[in-house]
Specification:
The protein is α/β, with parallel strands linked by helices. It is built from 10 helices and 20 strands. Bound molecules: flavin-adenine dinucleotide.
Length: about 350
């Protein structure tokens, strides 16, 4: 669909929010450039495929009750690659025993906002892991996506905005979408003279480490029940296991036949995450012998935690942005940490920019 008076929108940040924003603009026929500081897109969505295992570094699924990912998957022609959760139910490890946990509560305890009515529906994912949606979006966006192109500054320009890239090059755009971790967006906006944005920099991103551990099935001394467990309060100690997902029991295809894959969430520490996680999990799950391999991912800025007045702060910043040339903010630090919320946030930011540029969003 044609949009009037628009040539280019620059989207900064190619996490799922930025990718979803880019997709929304591409569908509307708008020229766009997606600028990502890292060499790969996806942000905290990272899937590695190794020896027949599918290893998730960040999210391993999305809330089944939320329609955003299935809708996006249908548009992208990958709906047939959606998979349902195999196992249901989780437990809490009290320090001495496992006790059942209400469905969906494990996600809430880890900081992903879940509406009460959505708790029962569980999670879904993609057969090849969460990066399937990222890889598909990147392929569809083609050269519009530029990796290793971090934006260091934004300034007003005759056209709208000038975005400064490393090496002194720049991108001029009529409109901008900042789909960055919100502290990074706050810095860019503050330099643009938007002082209320500074408050967004106070959103705390909880650091975390995820570590995947591969075993042979015969190393396990007791059957895995449910999707995993969350540890009771004690798990704030450095290197402690906060939670463990039985990855190969939760979704299909995560481990080859005769093997299993676990994933632990640890509080950050100086220790070796694989060794720490194995030492804690082995007695709990009666595992004998060492893991075949372990793979850790460090998230110094993991899930955002909002304060009570967060929504009002975001709204105030958006009111101020509305007075500038078209510019929008999106992503986990603004509108909710779940993958579905980020897709929604990115698409809404794109529609807002389209409206402000005089085109129709749908
Ligand atoms: C360990 C972990 C497990 C999770 N598990 C789940 C789960 O199971 N289910 C669920 O729904 N959610 C889960 N989440 C939450 C969810 O994955 C994230 O909130 C969401 O993916 C964030 O997307 P985003 O696009 O907002 O941000 P990000 O993924 O952080 O993307 C932002 C992008 O901006 C880039 N960037 C930064 N600065 C610049 C710059 N100056 N210029 C250009 N680019 C820049 C970054 O490199 C990055 O690619 C999990 C998160 C973590 C960390």
């Amino acid at each position: 669909m044609a949009v009037t008076a628009v040539t280019t929108v620059a989207i900064v940040g190619a996490g799922i929010a930025g990718l979803a924003a880019a997709w929304e603009l591409q569908r509307a026929g708008v020229a766009l450039t997606l600028l990502e500081s890292e060499r790969r897109a996806g942000g905290v969505i990272v899937t590695e495929r190794r020896d027949g295992f599918i290893v998730e570094g960040g999210p391993d699924g999305f809330l089944a009750a939320e329609p955003d990912l299935p809708a996006l998957a249908r548009e992208l022609g990958i709906a047939d690659r959606l998979v349902d959760q195999l196992a249901r139910g989780a437990a809490v490890w009290t320090g001495s025993r496992f006790e059942p946990l209400a469905e969906g509560s494990a996600a809430a305890l880890l900081g992903i906002q879940v509406r009460e009515e959505d708790l029962g529906a569980g999670f879904r994912s993609f057969a090849g892991g969460m990066a399937v949606v990222v890889e598909t979006l990147v392929a569809r966006l083609g050269p519009a996506m530029r990796a290793a192109a971090g934006v260091s500054a934004i300034s007003p320009s005759a056209r709208g905005y000038r975005l400064t890239l490393p090496g002194g090059s720049a991108v001029d755009a009529d409109g901008v979408i900042l789909a960055l971790p919100v502290f990074a967006a706050a810095r860019l906006l503050a330099a643009l003279g938007l002082s209320p944005a500074r408050a967004l920099g106070e959103v705390v991103y909880q650091p975390s480490v995820t570590v995947s551990l591969a075993y042979r099935s015969d190393q396990l001394g007791k059957p895995l029940e449910g999707t995993g467990f969350v540890a009771a309060a004690a798990a704030a100690a450095p290197g402690a296991v906060r939670a463990c997902t039985y990855a190969s029991a939760k979704y299909p295809g995560r481990a080859p036949a005769g093997h299993m894959l676990l994933r632990a969430f640890l509080a950050p520490s100086d220790g070796e995450p694989g060794a720490l996680a194995h030492a804690e999990l082995a007695p709990l799950l009666r595992i004998t012998g060492a893991p075949l391999w372990t793979r850790a991912f460090h998230w110094p800025h993991g899930l955002p935690r909002y304060e009570a007045h967060h929504a009002a702060r975001v709204a105030r910043v958006r009111e101020r942005l509305a007075r500038l040339a078209p510019i929008a903010i999106a992503g986990a630090g603004c509108d909710g940490a779940g993958v579905s919320a980020c897709v929604r946030s990115g698409r809404e930011a794109a529609r807002l920019i389209l409206r402000r540029m005089g085109g129709r969003a749908d």
